[in-house]
Amino acid sequence: MRFVSYPTLLLTASVVLTSSTVRADETPLRQLIDAEVKAVWQRENVTPAPAASDAAFLRRIYLDLVGTIPTAAEAREFLADKDADKRAKLIDKLLDDPRYAEQQMNVWDQVLFGRRPPDSDLTQRREGFQKWLREKFAKNEPYDRWVRELLQAEGWTSEGPTMYFAQYKNDPESAATAVSRIFLGTQLQCARCHDHPFDKWKQVDFYGLAGFLVRQTFVEGNQNGKRHYLLVEKSSGEVLFSGPAAEQKPGKKGDPVPARYLGGDLLQEPPLPAGFKEPELKGIKTVQKPLFSRKQKLAEWITAADNPYFAKAISNRIWAQFMGKGLVDPVDDLRDNRPASHPKLFQAVHEQLVAQKFDLKWLVRELVNSQAYQLSVSGAVTDASPRFYERSRVRPLSAEEIMASFRSATGFDDAVKAAGGNPATTKTPEATYFLPYFGEPTNGRGDFQASLNEHLFLNNSGSLRQSMIQPRKGNLADRLLTSKEAWEERVDELFLSVLTRLPREQERKKFVEYLTADKQAGAAIEDAIWVLLNTAEFRFNH
Amino acid sequence: MNPLCKPVEHINRRAFLKGTLATAAGGAFLNFGSLFNSDSIAAEAKKLGKKCILLWMNGGASQIDTFDMKPGTDNAGPFRPINTKVSGMPVCEYLPKVAQHADKLAVIRSMKTSEPDHPGGIMSMHTGYRPAVNVPYPEIGAMVAKFNGPADSDLPSCVHLGGAGYGGGGGAGFLGPKFQPFSVGRDGRLPSFTTPYLKADSEQRRNDLLRFMEQDAAKESSAEPFEAHRLAKEKAWRLLQAKGVFDASQEWPKYRDLYGDTEFGRGCMMARRLIEAGVAFVEVGQENYDSHADNFTVHKATLSVLDPGWSGLMTDLKDRGLLDDTLIIWMGEVGRTPQINNRVGRDHYINGWTVVLAGGGTKGGMVYGATNANGVGVKDDPVSEGDLFATIFTALGINPRAKHYVGPRPITAAPEKSKVVKEVLA
């Protein structure tokens, strides 16, 4: 850890050991977060940013919870509200909004699949999986329960959670790597070819885990006229381990490795009956159960409340989703020898999450109600996610968030309605460009990198211009153009629609000048909307 | 900007304003007055590290019908070898012009690679690594752009003219979108979204309004992503200012005979224009060598297009003093079987095939490695894709052990155990 000197670490660690017996569940988590974050500011002599304005908070919470910016009307209502408790009330309202489930589904869909999963012809048709996942968030089903269901997935890839494993079909090693990384926050991939150089994992740990998934079998078939697979678990089959990759020779077959819980015991399983023969699977249409399910054992072990990694991994991931950086960074690399930046806080978060029975909505509510989450973005720190949480993090909007925010900002849905259409079934124009150009805006470490294509598209797409930015009956440009209000008022409406805030004095003046200069009003309005959509302020959640 | 003015002169305008020119290594030297007064573009280009042009033989060209001919064996086929000024390096009769450059070619005849199919081969022959689910390896063009590209230029540092296409070779991978290859048409035509819909003065007014907003916002927060976003916007505008370089219509008639009047020939000339303009890496693709049937018809046609394009490029670069600082790589994703199948075709082959390097950083007039007498299998000095990439990076002045971190995992530019084929380096 590069931020804290080594003796300090030892000291912090020992403090944690002695205080771990003191339970903190009397204090609401949000207060504990603020107390711990503040303690580190004092220790590190860090000056935090001031609290975020109502407008900044409003935009941030909409994007984080429901994946879009608010409309100008929603912004006006919130800004005018005099209730001292209005932020907490808005949080409660958005957590119950149907778009909350959609947004969390999108976030997790990316965690589980990424933008370019293997066998894209199959995996891009994962509407069934997305529907399943969306329902989990809509019902706020406990995290351990839906993960258990996911890990035990069987049946057709056209519905339910099965598609998750289909991206690793015939590759139990990659499946084991992904499962341990995402759900246990451990990086096993090094141990695939050699013992892990910086962590305790040996190759046998890796192959032992893969042993739980090696019996998964994908039987090819057809659903709704498309290629899909029936996922079943066989009763036999072992992972073969042939030693370190560097020492492998062609023709060396390897020895079977028994299934073993990560860092724990060997799996106890009944022996196969004498003379057992695996039934023929080709062409089957319905699930066949194995005599003994290894996947079920793995799912139970991973999601158990006392699993040493599971609660830590999810706490850290949710923390990072809302606070920018994990308490252990990166989020999916928990190690015995890598302490959290705020050890006591990290412990409280995962212990309380277990006590709350893996209620993710509870955790999100506590996080976004904290003062630490509600700081402004100002200050001299250049990091996208400051290490001591001394100001708000800056994260690029995802492709989905950008599209939703474009629609909201430009009044696209109002124009669809005015033309007699249904916004819910109207696709975002140019989605085929938004997805690749805004889909992966980071390097391998999650740092934002701007792409040329993104800007060429925004600058020069005539179709984007016509469908969203130019006046169409009912949309923002049309509203501004046909309004009878003073230009000052119209500029306010423009800023609220796109940036969720009122203009500063000099901005209002400049935009009024621009809109009333010797130019066609429609063209000038179009320019003004385009300008705000192209600001860095719009591009990020901050 | 004056369309005739070469963008390399704008390589580092900001640094110039400060009176310094940043070098690729990150150092800086005093440069007052010298930037616009330099002897030649070649001299400027030298300061920026070597450039690279990849001639990508999509589908996989046949080694036994080009640079590793086995006359008199069952596998020979109908093509005849012609001798070159380098003894021991005969080449196919359909590459007579390339043959004249034999003294500048380093022919590696012992490629032994791991991906027999197109997608895997395209990926591994662009990254030096076998494809992996967990690591988005960057393709060679993105690596060259990162290490040898100008720090600040109007043009993208990595340009594709056809070839493996968007993402097929891995794209920028973990290096991030800053180094994403910029894909244009095979002959240099610009892609979508490079033609403004506003008139120049209207666009200028609109852009100035955006600049006003961004200047204001910059005072509010120092967060890096905001700055990265603003710079990318400026860069997109500057690209359109510099896009004249993609319009070769004036120059083409003079060079048509040299490069051959084909899309590929025109792409080769465009590669030279781009290198001259400061672009660090250009990939020119040629379709399609995948001759599972009628191998000889396919190769006769494709080689006849390749010959003037490639040789014209060598001649032109040499005439302009750029060849010593520009590495040319000739390769595809696989070789082809020495045996001729029952459709007079040759299938994919990875156990003994050929890649050719020329120019920047390499030793010409040499053959490295050998296949067996009938072309089946490597006899001497096998070279893996990792070894090839370690060699290419070294030729370009890039440390093949340079590390990048993907999450916590260090990834070297070329695979860790790969070896540099020193024999082919100058």
Description:
- The complex is a heterodimer of chains A (542) and B (426).
- Chain A is mainly α and 542 residues long.
- Chain A has 3 domains: 167 residues, no CATH class; 175 residues, no CATH class; 146 residues, no CATH class.
- Helix content of chain A is 50%, strand content 5%.
- In chain A, strands 1-3-2 form a 3-stranded antiparallel β-sheet. In chain A, strands 4-5 form a two-stranded antiparallel ribbon. A two-stranded antiparallel sheet of chain A has the order 6-7.
- In chain A, strand 2 and strand 3 form a beta hairpin.
- Chain A is globular and about 90 Å long.
- In chain B, helix 8 packs across helix 9 and helix 9 packs parallel to helix 10.
- Chain B has 426 residues and is α/β, with parallel strands linked by helices.
- In chain B, a hairpin with a 5-residue loop joins strand 1 and strand 2.
- Chain B has one domain: Alkaline Phosphatase, subunit A.
- In chain B, strands 8-7-9-3-10-13-6-14 form an 8-stranded mixed β-sheet, with helices on both faces. Chain B has a two-stranded antiparallel sheet with strand order 1-2.
- Chain B is globular.
- The chains are: A mainly alpha (542), B alpha/beta (426).
- Chains A and B meet through helix 11, strand 6, helix 21, helix 25 and helix 26 of A and helix 6, helix 7 and strand 17 of B.
CATH homology superfamily of chain B: Alkaline Phosphatase, subunit A
> Oligomeric state of the chains?
heterodimer
* Total domain modules of chain B: 1
Largest sheet of chain A: 3 strands, antiparallel
Going by helix content, strand content and strand pairing, the class of chain A is mainly alpha
Overall shape of chain A: it is: globular
Helical coverage of chain B, percent range: 25-40%
Class from helix and strand fractions of chain B: alpha/beta
Helix segment tally of chain B? 11
> Runs of chain A with pLDDT <50, length 5+?
1-22
What is the typical, i.e. mean, pLDDT of chain B? 86
Instruction: Give the terminus-to-terminus CA distance of chain B.
Output: 39 Å
What is the string of helix and strand elements of chain B? HEEHEEEHEHHEEHHHHEHEEEEEEEHEE
CATH architecture of chain B: 3-Layer(aba) Sandwich
Please state the overall shape of chain B, judged from the principal axes of the Cα atoms: globular
Order of strands across the main sheet of chain B: 8-7-9-3-10-13-6-14
What Rg of chain B, in angstroms, do the CA atoms define?
22 Å
The largest pleated sheet of chain B is described as: 8 strands, mixed
Total beta-strand segments of chain B? 18
Topology, number of strands of chain A: 7
